[in-house]
Amino acid sequence: xxxxxxxxAVLLVLVLxxxxxxxxxxxxxxxxLDEWGLGGRQFGVIISWFLIxxxxxxxxxxxxxxxxxxxxxALAFFAVPYTIVAYPILYVIFPKLWRxxxxxxxxxxxxxxxxRYGNRYLALAVGITGIVATMPYIALQLVGMQTVIGGLxxxxxxxxxxxxxxxxxxxLAAFTFTSGLRAPAMIAIVKDLLIYLTIIVAIIVIxxxxxxxxxxxxKIAPAKLLLPxxxxxxxxxxxxxxxxxxxxxxxxxxxxxxTTGVLSARSSEVVRRxxxxxxxxxxxxxxxxLLGAMAVASGVATMPQFAAGFKEFGTNFAVPAxxxxxxxxxxxGIAFAAIAIGALVPAAIMAIASxxxxxxxxxxQFINPRVTAGQESMVARLFSIVxxxxxxxxxxxxxxxxxxxxxxxxGIWMIQIFPAIVFSLFTRFYNGWALLVGxxxxxxxxxxxxxxxxxxxxxxxFHIAGYTFPCYIAIATFIVNVVVSTALSxxxxxxxxxxxxxxxxxADYG
Amino acid sequence: xxxxxxSSREPEPERGRRVSAWRFLxxxxxxxxxxxxxxxxxxxxxxxxxxxxxxxxxxxxxxxxIIFIVYKAES
Lengths: 510, 75
Hints:
The complex is a heterodimer. By secondary structure, chain A is mainly alpha-helical. Chain A has a single domain, classed as Up-down Bundle (Sodium/glucose cotransporter), CATH 1.20.1730. Chain A has 23 helices and two strands. In chain A, a hairpin with a 2-residue loop joins strand 1 and strand 2. In chain A, helix 6 packs antiparallel against helix 7, helix 13 packs across helix 18 and helix 15 crosses helix 17. Chain A is globular, with a radius of gyration of 22 Å. In chain A, 59% of the residues are buried. The mean pLDDT of chain A is 89. Chain B has a domain of 41 residues. Chain B has three helices and no strands. In chain B, helix 2 runs antiparallel to helix 3. Chain B is elongated and about 45 Å long. Chains A and B meet through helix 3, helix 5, helix 10, helix 12 and helix 14 of A and helix 1, helix 2 and helix 3 of B.
């Protein structure tokens, strides 16, 4: 494995250096928040493609989705319809958000909501939802990186074993501070090229070694090869699968890091074109998911040399074990570096996006309204470090299961800002306070049902008139949120309309 | 690090874009991939891939083509 470690280390050092150099790329005035936190809103089609792709298809995705395939089978393939239907949503909705945000200088989603309703408490709710959902997400990127470092044979509970991870993320914090969004934009290019290279090689070499795709699928237990047929009177896993895909897609671009990726584009045209070309990543994700099936077929689960890895990382170790077992060591170094760099890009963007929200929607609104532009940028840069160090602390101080549970909650919370952001792009029917009540109902109910599932699953079997409808909790509670917001809006408007506070005009939405 | 040509030929200004009935085409990816009974079968298999898997993988580029058609129609 020595050659793998050397290649892994060289690639990582190279990329971390690139992070610092990125600050000088089409450099701007870093004392302005949109320069630091949105890269100056100047990325064209290709850079945005790498940035958004590198941002939403994360290292944890590459580890956890095939791990689910490895453990649960066909259910894991929901990632494919999820990342198919996300793009019609991107095409229809987010060019509008780009236009209104560029016109008014909004840097975050919550800022748009505040501009639309003049309601800083609604914006606060939207912003905090984003930050809280993002925290465990950064922590899970560390897990993705930890897993491949473990795969290289650097394992154990001691400080020495954690050192590579700690160093990588401290360096990440440093170049995020100095370079802002330009750093992950530049690194994403390297990361994605390495990821595409890895998956193309893996998808050709590994099936050839295992006797072809027919032989691979033949080794999957019949019960896991397809979704089980629903029992009479129930939607079974069919409704669970479909609602999981739809709900995840609706929430995807509401995550602060995804919104930041969209808003950093040069024009709304760049966003529209990316809705056409980003699905290339979805195809790659589908193929990566199949690595889980290949891991089953290869029999790595019972090989003694991988026993320690599976014991420490569980099914997350399936892909690293498969790659070590089937590929030459030098290529394992490249593949693992791709995954590790795949952790750095989203982690940096998540920290930056959270920092933008903290600065614009919390600090400036509730702590120091008289903050200057330079101070504002500095607050954001410091908060990005807090987010990254916080994620490190999260992973080392708490059991992994908390990060996974909080991530699950994050997904079903995130969709609750859909009415406030998306509906508001199309209509001014809603009232800010009504949206806030709807949001609160959605968050409360979502948490309630997730707790009924003991935070172990996000699909809950709802009973409607004698029929059982297993549904992604996010979708069911989103419907309640919409009903409440819609029913209360005319009532709130009748007492105190907030339409006069709207700083946007019809023309801003294009 | 200059952007390739494709990104520099953007029509400006931002406004005046057509929103058309072509958008209804965007419903196809939703219907085709979210109605599980369409594709939860092992057969017909292609290159060893059960139908369930290759159907959904093929749906990815097809959906991108549909978005491209709508994009072209509205440009």
